[in-house]
Design a protein that fits this description.
alpha+beta, about 450 residues, five-stranded mixed sheet, Heat Shock Protein 90, 12 strands, five-stranded antiparallel sheet
Protein backbone atom coordinates (compact mmCIF):
# COMPACT_ATOMS: atom_id res chain seq x y z
CA UNK A 1 0.00 0.00 0.00
CA UNK A 2 2.90 2.37 -0.67
CA UNK A 3 1.29 3.94 -3.72
CA UNK A 4 4.10 3.06 -6.10
CA UNK A 5 2.90 2.58 -9.69
CA UNK A 6 2.95 -0.98 -10.99
CA UNK A 7 2.85 -2.52 -7.53
CA UNK A 8 0.18 -5.21 -7.38
CA UNK A 9 -2.19 -5.11 -4.39
CA UNK A 10 -1.65 -7.85 -1.86
CA UNK A 11 -4.33 -10.48 -1.41
CA UNK A 12 -5.73 -10.40 2.11
CA UNK A 13 -6.96 -13.99 1.72
CA UNK A 14 -3.53 -15.20 0.65
CA UNK A 15 -1.78 -13.18 3.33
CA UNK A 16 -4.00 -14.50 6.12
CA UNK A 17 -3.87 -18.07 4.79
CA UNK A 18 -0.09 -18.21 4.53
CA UNK A 19 0.37 -16.44 7.85
CA UNK A 20 -1.87 -18.94 9.63
CA UNK A 21 -0.29 -21.87 7.78
CA UNK A 22 3.18 -20.67 8.70
CA UNK A 23 2.22 -20.35 12.37
CA UNK A 24 0.57 -23.79 12.35
CA UNK A 25 3.61 -25.42 10.70
CA UNK A 26 6.02 -23.82 13.18
CA UNK A 27 3.92 -24.84 16.17
CA UNK A 28 3.34 -28.30 14.68
CA UNK A 29 7.09 -28.81 14.37
CA UNK A 30 7.66 -27.52 17.90
CA UNK A 31 4.81 -29.65 19.25
CA UNK A 32 6.06 -32.66 17.30
CA UNK A 33 9.56 -32.26 18.67
CA UNK A 34 8.28 -31.89 22.22
CA UNK A 35 5.90 -34.81 21.75
CA UNK A 36 8.67 -37.00 20.33
CA UNK A 37 11.04 -36.10 23.14
CA UNK A 38 8.35 -36.65 25.75
CA UNK A 39 7.33 -39.99 24.23
CA UNK A 40 10.93 -41.12 24.01
CA UNK A 41 11.57 -40.17 27.62
CA UNK A 42 8.39 -41.89 28.79
CA UNK A 43 9.28 -45.06 26.89
CA UNK A 44 12.74 -45.06 28.49
CA UNK A 45 11.22 -44.71 31.96
CA UNK A 46 8.83 -47.55 31.23
CA UNK A 47 11.68 -49.80 30.13
CA UNK A 48 13.66 -48.87 33.25
CA UNK A 49 10.65 -49.85 35.34
CA UNK A 50 10.63 -53.23 33.59
CA UNK A 51 14.27 -53.79 34.51
CA UNK A 52 13.50 -52.77 38.08
CA UNK A 53 10.45 -55.06 38.26
CA UNK A 54 12.51 -58.03 37.08
CA UNK A 55 14.96 -57.34 39.87
CA UNK A 56 12.13 -57.08 42.42
CA UNK A 57 10.67 -60.42 41.31
CA UNK A 58 14.03 -62.17 41.61
CA UNK A 59 14.73 -60.51 44.94
CA UNK A 60 11.35 -61.64 46.35
CA UNK A 61 11.81 -65.18 45.09
CA UNK A 62 8.85 -65.04 42.75
CA UNK A 63 11.14 -65.44 39.77
CA UNK A 64 13.85 -68.07 39.86
CA UNK A 65 16.82 -68.14 37.52
CA UNK A 66 17.75 -71.49 35.94
CA UNK A 67 21.41 -70.45 36.03
CA UNK A 68 23.46 -67.70 37.66
CA UNK A 69 23.54 -65.86 34.30
CA UNK A 70 20.75 -65.94 31.76
CA UNK A 71 20.87 -64.20 28.36
CA UNK A 72 18.35 -63.55 25.62
CA UNK A 73 19.48 -63.34 22.01
CA UNK A 74 18.60 -60.45 19.73
CA UNK A 75 15.63 -61.20 17.45
CA UNK A 76 17.75 -60.18 14.48
CA UNK A 77 20.65 -62.41 15.46
CA UNK A 78 22.90 -59.51 16.43
CA UNK A 79 24.06 -60.90 19.76
CA UNK A 80 22.51 -60.62 23.17
CA UNK A 81 19.58 -58.28 23.85
CA UNK A 82 19.13 -58.88 27.62
CA UNK A 83 21.29 -60.27 30.43
CA UNK A 84 20.23 -61.26 33.96
CA UNK A 85 23.01 -62.29 36.31
CA UNK A 86 23.02 -63.15 40.05
CA UNK A 87 26.47 -63.56 41.53
CA UNK A 88 27.25 -64.65 45.08
CA UNK A 89 30.43 -63.46 46.80
CA UNK A 90 33.31 -65.82 46.06
CA UNK A 91 31.26 -67.90 43.58
CA UNK A 92 33.17 -69.31 40.59
CA UNK A 93 32.70 -67.93 37.05
CA UNK A 94 29.62 -69.13 35.20
CA UNK A 95 31.48 -69.76 32.01
CA UNK A 96 29.13 -67.56 30.04
CA UNK A 97 30.91 -64.74 28.32
CA UNK A 98 28.79 -61.59 28.60
CA UNK A 99 29.71 -58.27 26.91
CA UNK A 100 29.80 -56.38 30.21
CA UNK A 101 32.49 -55.40 32.68
CA UNK A 102 32.80 -57.53 35.84
CA UNK A 103 29.77 -57.14 38.11
CA UNK A 104 31.85 -56.27 41.16
CA UNK A 105 33.08 -53.15 39.35
CA UNK A 106 29.57 -51.71 38.88
CA UNK A 107 27.80 -49.64 41.54
CA UNK A 108 24.18 -50.16 42.54
CA UNK A 109 21.42 -48.40 40.59
CA UNK A 110 20.59 -47.58 36.96
CA UNK A 111 23.48 -46.68 34.70
CA UNK A 112 24.58 -46.65 31.09
CA UNK A 113 27.57 -48.87 30.42
CA UNK A 114 29.67 -48.70 27.26
CA UNK A 115 31.62 -51.92 26.68
CA UNK A 116 33.19 -53.36 23.53
CA UNK A 117 31.53 -50.74 21.30
CA UNK A 118 28.03 -51.29 22.62
CA UNK A 119 25.94 -49.43 25.17
CA UNK A 120 23.86 -51.20 27.80
CA UNK A 121 21.26 -50.00 30.23
CA UNK A 122 22.10 -51.70 33.51
CA UNK A 123 20.31 -51.97 36.85
CA UNK A 124 22.48 -53.36 39.68
CA UNK A 125 21.14 -54.33 43.14
CA UNK A 126 22.83 -55.83 46.19
CA UNK A 127 20.58 -58.46 47.76
CA UNK A 128 20.45 -59.70 51.32
CA UNK A 129 23.26 -62.09 51.98
CA UNK A 130 25.62 -60.15 49.73
CA UNK A 131 24.43 -61.48 46.36
CA UNK A 132 24.56 -58.97 43.55
CA UNK A 133 21.90 -58.90 40.88
CA UNK A 134 22.39 -57.39 37.41
CA UNK A 135 19.59 -56.83 34.90
CA UNK A 136 20.88 -55.33 31.63
CA UNK A 137 19.29 -54.48 28.29
CA UNK A 138 21.09 -53.38 25.18
CA UNK A 139 20.46 -49.69 24.58
CA UNK A 140 20.08 -50.15 20.83
CA UNK A 141 17.01 -52.31 21.37
CA UNK A 142 15.62 -49.89 23.94
CA UNK A 143 16.20 -46.90 21.69
CA UNK A 144 14.53 -48.63 18.78
CA UNK A 145 11.46 -49.45 20.87
CA UNK A 146 11.29 -45.92 22.30
CA UNK A 147 11.82 -44.42 18.85
CA UNK A 148 9.04 -46.52 17.33
CA UNK A 149 6.65 -45.67 20.17
CA UNK A 150 7.36 -41.95 19.84
CA UNK A 151 6.86 -42.05 16.11
CA UNK A 152 3.51 -43.77 16.51
CA UNK A 153 2.50 -40.89 18.79
CA UNK A 154 3.81 -38.25 16.39
CA UNK A 155 2.66 -39.62 13.03
CA UNK A 156 -1.11 -38.99 13.48
CA UNK A 157 -0.44 -35.32 14.23
CA UNK A 158 1.89 -34.96 11.24
CA UNK A 159 -0.63 -36.72 9.02
CA UNK A 160 -3.45 -34.39 10.13
CA UNK A 161 -1.42 -31.19 9.70
CA UNK A 162 -1.86 -30.95 5.87
CA UNK A 163 -5.58 -31.55 6.30
CA UNK A 164 -5.67 -28.81 8.94
CA UNK A 165 -3.90 -26.43 6.54
CA UNK A 166 -6.49 -27.10 3.83
CA UNK A 167 -9.31 -26.52 6.31
CA UNK A 168 -7.71 -23.22 7.42
CA UNK A 169 -7.43 -22.06 3.79
CA UNK A 170 -11.08 -22.89 3.12
CA UNK A 171 -12.25 -21.20 6.34
CA UNK A 172 -10.23 -18.05 5.57
CA UNK A 173 -11.62 -17.88 2.06
CA UNK A 174 -15.17 -18.39 3.34
CA UNK A 175 -14.70 -15.76 6.06
CA UNK A 176 -13.64 -13.15 3.47
CA UNK A 177 -16.41 -14.08 1.03
CA UNK A 178 -18.65 -11.21 2.28
CA UNK A 179 -15.94 -8.72 1.30
CA UNK A 180 -15.82 -10.10 -2.24
CA UNK A 181 -19.61 -10.10 -2.38
CA UNK A 182 -19.78 -6.46 -1.26
CA UNK A 183 -17.11 -5.51 -3.80
CA UNK A 184 -19.22 -7.09 -6.56
CA UNK A 185 -22.30 -5.20 -5.34
CA UNK A 186 -20.42 -1.88 -5.31
CA UNK A 187 -18.98 -2.53 -8.78
CA UNK A 188 -22.48 -3.22 -10.08
CA UNK A 189 -23.87 0.12 -8.90
CA UNK A 190 -24.05 3.35 -10.88
CA UNK A 191 -25.43 6.84 -10.31
CA UNK A 192 -28.97 5.53 -10.83
CA UNK A 193 -28.87 2.38 -8.66
CA UNK A 194 -26.50 3.75 -5.99
CA UNK A 195 -27.67 2.51 -2.60
CA UNK A 196 -26.46 1.58 0.89
CA UNK A 197 -24.74 -1.77 1.41
CA UNK A 198 -26.65 -4.38 3.37
CA UNK A 199 -25.31 -5.32 6.81
CA UNK A 200 -26.97 -8.75 6.75
CA UNK A 201 -24.43 -11.56 7.12
CA UNK A 202 -21.52 -9.15 7.60
CA UNK A 203 -18.96 -10.08 10.30
CA UNK A 204 -18.93 -7.76 13.30
CA UNK A 205 -15.35 -6.66 12.56
CA UNK A 206 -16.39 -5.36 9.11
CA UNK A 207 -19.48 -3.47 10.27
CA UNK A 208 -17.65 -0.16 11.06
CA UNK A 209 -16.09 -0.24 7.60
CA UNK A 210 -19.43 -0.99 5.92
CA UNK A 211 -21.17 1.76 7.89
CA UNK A 212 -18.47 4.24 6.88
CA UNK A 213 -18.99 3.28 3.24
CA UNK A 214 -22.75 3.71 3.65
CA UNK A 215 -22.24 7.17 5.13
CA UNK A 216 -19.98 8.02 2.20
CA UNK A 217 -22.62 6.72 -0.23
CA UNK A 218 -25.25 8.83 1.53
CA UNK A 219 -23.10 11.95 1.18
CA UNK A 220 -22.41 11.09 -2.44
CA UNK A 221 -26.12 10.68 -3.16
CA UNK A 222 -26.83 14.04 -1.51
CA UNK A 223 -24.11 15.66 -3.61
CA UNK A 224 -25.50 14.11 -6.78
CA UNK A 225 -29.02 15.28 -5.89
CA UNK A 226 -27.69 18.78 -5.25
CA UNK A 227 -25.78 18.72 -8.51
CA UNK A 228 -28.82 17.61 -10.53
CA UNK A 229 -31.01 20.17 -8.78
CA UNK A 230 -28.40 22.87 -9.35
CA UNK A 231 -28.15 22.05 -13.07
CA UNK A 232 -31.94 22.02 -13.40
CA UNK A 233 -32.33 25.31 -11.51
CA UNK A 234 -29.51 26.94 -13.46
CA UNK A 235 -31.03 25.84 -16.77
CA UNK A 236 -34.40 27.19 -15.68
CA UNK A 237 -33.00 30.53 -14.55
CA UNK A 238 -30.88 30.98 -17.66
CA UNK A 239 -33.75 30.21 -20.02
CA UNK A 240 -35.52 33.55 -19.48
CA UNK A 241 -32.44 35.83 -19.75
CA UNK A 242 -31.24 34.03 -22.86
CA UNK A 243 -34.69 34.28 -24.42
CA UNK A 244 -34.75 37.99 -23.60
CA UNK A 245 -31.29 38.44 -25.14
CA UNK A 246 -32.47 36.72 -28.29
CA UNK A 247 -35.53 38.95 -28.58
CA UNK A 248 -33.54 42.11 -27.90
CA UNK A 249 -30.91 41.11 -30.45
CA UNK A 250 -33.64 40.52 -33.04
CA UNK A 251 -35.21 43.83 -32.08
CA UNK A 252 -31.88 45.57 -32.53
CA UNK A 253 -31.46 44.24 -36.06
CA UNK A 254 -34.92 45.56 -36.95
CA UNK A 255 -34.17 49.10 -35.73
CA UNK A 256 -33.79 51.73 -38.51
CA UNK A 257 -33.55 54.93 -36.49
CA UNK A 258 -30.12 55.55 -34.87
CA UNK A 259 -31.65 56.85 -31.66
CA UNK A 260 -33.95 53.84 -31.46
CA UNK A 261 -31.01 51.54 -32.20
CA UNK A 262 -28.94 53.11 -29.40
CA UNK A 263 -31.79 52.65 -26.95
CA UNK A 264 -32.24 49.03 -27.93
CA UNK A 265 -28.46 48.48 -27.75
CA UNK A 266 -28.37 49.91 -24.22
CA UNK A 267 -31.18 47.55 -23.21
CA UNK A 268 -29.29 44.65 -24.80
CA UNK A 269 -26.11 45.60 -22.95
CA UNK A 270 -28.00 45.76 -19.65
CA UNK A 271 -29.49 42.32 -20.32
CA UNK A 272 -26.04 40.95 -21.15
CA UNK A 273 -24.69 42.43 -17.91
CA UNK A 274 -27.50 40.83 -15.89
CA UNK A 275 -26.94 37.49 -17.58
CA UNK A 276 -23.19 37.69 -16.96
CA UNK A 277 -23.88 38.51 -13.32
CA UNK A 278 -26.20 35.50 -13.07
CA UNK A 279 -23.59 33.19 -14.60
CA UNK A 280 -20.93 34.59 -12.24
CA UNK A 281 -23.13 33.88 -9.24
CA UNK A 282 -23.94 30.39 -10.50
CA UNK A 283 -20.23 29.65 -10.76
CA UNK A 284 -19.64 31.09 -7.28
CA UNK A 285 -22.41 28.89 -5.88
CA UNK A 286 -20.96 25.81 -7.61
CA UNK A 287 -17.50 26.58 -6.25
CA UNK A 288 -18.85 27.08 -2.72
CA UNK A 289 -20.64 23.71 -2.85
CA UNK A 290 -17.75 21.71 -4.27
CA UNK A 291 -14.74 23.65 -3.05
CA UNK A 292 -11.52 21.90 -2.18
CA UNK A 293 -9.84 22.19 1.21
CA UNK A 294 -9.59 25.84 2.36
CA UNK A 295 -6.36 27.64 1.48
CA UNK A 296 -5.46 29.91 4.41
CA UNK A 297 -3.31 33.02 4.12
CA UNK A 298 -2.75 36.30 5.97
CA UNK A 299 -5.30 38.85 4.78
CA UNK A 300 -5.75 42.51 5.66
CA UNK A 301 -9.31 43.05 6.84
CA UNK A 302 -9.22 46.67 5.70
CA UNK A 303 -8.21 45.66 2.18
CA UNK A 304 -10.79 42.86 2.08
CA UNK A 305 -13.65 45.21 3.08
CA UNK A 306 -12.47 47.94 0.70
CA UNK A 307 -12.41 45.55 -2.27
CA UNK A 308 -15.94 44.31 -1.49
CA UNK A 309 -17.28 47.89 -1.44
CA UNK A 310 -15.40 48.84 -4.59
CA UNK A 311 -17.13 46.09 -6.57
CA UNK A 312 -20.57 47.53 -5.67
CA UNK A 313 -19.76 51.24 -6.08
CA UNK A 314 -21.14 51.54 -9.60
CA UNK A 315 -24.51 50.03 -8.68
CA UNK A 316 -24.61 52.15 -5.50
CA UNK A 317 -23.86 55.37 -7.45
CA UNK A 318 -26.52 54.53 -10.01
CA UNK A 319 -29.11 54.27 -7.19
CA UNK A 320 -27.66 57.16 -5.15
CA UNK A 321 -26.98 54.79 -2.24
CA UNK A 322 -24.67 55.90 0.55
CA UNK A 323 -22.25 52.93 0.71
CA UNK A 324 -19.38 53.02 3.19
CA UNK A 325 -17.30 51.35 5.92
CA UNK A 326 -18.64 51.80 9.42
CA UNK A 327 -16.02 49.77 11.34
CA UNK A 328 -13.00 47.72 10.24
CA UNK A 329 -10.25 46.17 12.39
CA UNK A 330 -7.04 47.22 10.67
CA UNK A 331 -5.27 43.90 11.25
CA UNK A 332 -4.17 40.86 9.29
CA UNK A 333 -5.96 37.57 9.90
CA UNK A 334 -5.08 34.04 8.82
CA UNK A 335 -8.19 32.75 6.98
CA UNK A 336 -9.63 31.40 3.74
CA UNK A 337 -9.56 34.69 1.83
CA UNK A 338 -11.43 33.40 -1.22
CA UNK A 339 -14.45 32.22 0.80
CA UNK A 340 -14.68 35.39 2.93
CA UNK A 341 -14.29 37.65 -0.12
CA UNK A 342 -17.12 35.92 -2.00
CA UNK A 343 -19.38 35.99 1.06
CA UNK A 344 -18.77 39.68 1.83
CA UNK A 345 -19.14 40.75 -1.80
CA UNK A 346 -22.49 38.98 -2.08
CA UNK A 347 -23.77 40.53 1.16
CA UNK A 348 -22.80 44.02 0.00
CA UNK A 349 -24.16 43.48 -3.53
CA UNK A 350 -27.42 42.08 -2.14
CA UNK A 351 -27.88 45.07 0.17
CA UNK A 352 -27.12 47.65 -2.54
CA UNK A 353 -29.48 46.03 -5.06
CA UNK A 354 -32.44 45.72 -2.71
CA UNK A 355 -32.15 48.93 -0.69
CA UNK A 356 -34.41 51.73 -2.03
CA UNK A 357 -32.87 54.58 -4.04
CA UNK A 358 -31.21 57.13 -1.82
CA UNK A 359 -30.79 54.56 0.93
CA UNK A 360 -27.80 53.72 3.10
CA UNK A 361 -25.56 50.63 3.41
CA UNK A 362 -22.98 50.29 6.21
CA UNK A 363 -20.30 47.59 6.21
CA UNK A 364 -18.33 46.39 9.26
CA UNK A 365 -15.58 43.74 9.37
CA UNK A 366 -14.23 42.90 12.84
CA UNK A 367 -12.39 40.09 14.63
CA UNK A 368 -14.55 38.97 17.56
CA UNK A 369 -14.17 35.96 19.90
CA UNK A 370 -12.69 33.51 17.38
CA UNK A 371 -14.89 34.64 14.49
CA UNK A 372 -14.43 37.10 11.67
CA UNK A 373 -17.73 39.01 11.70
CA UNK A 374 -18.85 40.60 8.43
CA UNK A 375 -21.89 42.80 9.07
CA UNK A 376 -23.87 44.59 6.35
CA UNK A 377 -26.75 46.84 7.39
CA UNK A 378 -29.07 48.63 4.95
CA UNK A 379 -31.92 51.05 5.42
CA UNK A 380 -34.37 49.03 3.36
CA UNK A 381 -37.73 47.61 4.36
CA UNK A 382 -36.22 44.24 5.20
CA UNK A 383 -37.73 40.82 4.61
CA UNK A 384 -41.04 39.55 6.06
CA UNK A 385 -40.30 37.40 9.09
CA UNK A 386 -41.92 34.36 7.57
CA UNK A 387 -39.58 34.70 4.55
CA UNK A 388 -36.28 34.99 6.45
CA UNK A 389 -35.55 31.26 6.19
CA UNK A 390 -36.52 30.98 2.54
CA UNK A 391 -34.37 33.86 1.23
CA UNK A 392 -31.29 31.63 1.62
CA UNK A 393 -32.76 29.11 -0.83
CA UNK A 394 -31.38 29.17 -4.35
CA UNK A 395 -33.22 31.38 -6.84
CA UNK A 396 -35.81 32.37 -4.25
CA UNK A 397 -36.96 35.98 -4.31
CA UNK A 398 -39.48 37.62 -2.00
CA UNK A 399 -42.79 38.02 -3.83
CA UNK A 400 -43.32 41.57 -5.04
CA UNK A 401 -39.59 42.37 -5.32
CA UNK A 402 -38.93 44.71 -8.24
CA UNK A 403 -35.15 45.08 -7.91
CA UNK A 404 -33.00 43.11 -10.33
CA UNK A 405 -31.36 40.03 -8.92
CA UNK A 406 -30.99 36.29 -9.31
CA UNK A 407 -31.88 35.09 -5.83
CA UNK A 408 -28.44 33.52 -5.35
CA UNK A 409 -26.52 36.01 -3.19
CA UNK A 410 -27.67 34.90 0.26
CA UNK A 411 -27.70 31.26 -0.88
CA UNK A 412 -24.00 31.51 -1.75
CA UNK A 413 -23.17 33.07 1.64
CA UNK A 414 -25.19 30.39 3.47
CA UNK A 415 -23.37 27.61 1.60
CA UNK A 416 -19.96 29.15 2.38
CA UNK A 417 -20.92 29.40 6.05
CA UNK A 418 -21.97 25.75 6.11
CA UNK A 419 -18.70 24.56 4.57
CA UNK A 420 -16.48 26.67 6.86
CA UNK A 421 -18.16 26.07 10.21
CA UNK A 422 -19.64 29.56 10.32
CA UNK A 423 -23.18 30.89 10.21
CA UNK A 424 -25.32 33.52 8.53
CA UNK A 425 -27.74 35.57 10.61
CA UNK A 426 -30.52 37.63 9.03
CA UNK A 427 -32.50 40.09 11.12
CA UNK A 428 -35.12 42.78 10.60
CA UNK A 429 -34.46 45.86 12.70
CA UNK A 430 -36.10 49.23 13.24
CA UNK A 431 -33.43 50.90 11.13
CA UNK A 432 -33.52 48.41 8.26
CA UNK A 433 -32.21 44.95 7.45
CA UNK A 434 -29.10 43.37 9.01
CA UNK A 435 -27.13 40.48 7.46
CA UNK A 436 -24.18 39.13 9.48
CA UNK A 437 -21.75 36.43 8.36
CA UNK A 438 -19.64 34.70 11.05
CA UNK A 439 -16.51 33.02 9.70
CA UNK A 440 -14.76 30.60 12.06
CA UNK A 441 -11.05 31.42 12.45
Amino acid sequence: MDGRPGRKPRSLTRQLTWSIIGIIVVFALMGGALSFAGGYREASRLQDSHLHDIGVLIKSGKLMLAAPTVTWPDAHGNGMSMIISRVSPGAPETGINVPLPPLETLPDGFQNVDFEGRRWRVNVQTLQGGDRLLVAERSTIRDEIAHDGSLRTLLPMLALTPLLLIVIALITRAALAPVRRLAAIVDGQDEVTLGALSEVGIPKELLPFIRSINRLISRLKDAMVQQRRFVADAAHELRSPLAALTLQAESLTAATDPEDARGRLAALQAAVHRTARLVEQLLALARSQHAAAPAHSLVSLHRLAKDAIQDAVNVANAKNVDLGLKQVDDIQVDLDASAVTIALRNLVDNAVRYVPEGGRVDVAVVNREGYLVCSVKDSGRGVPDDQLVRVTERFYRVPGTVSSGSGLGLSIVSEIARRNGGRLELQNASDGFHATYYHLL
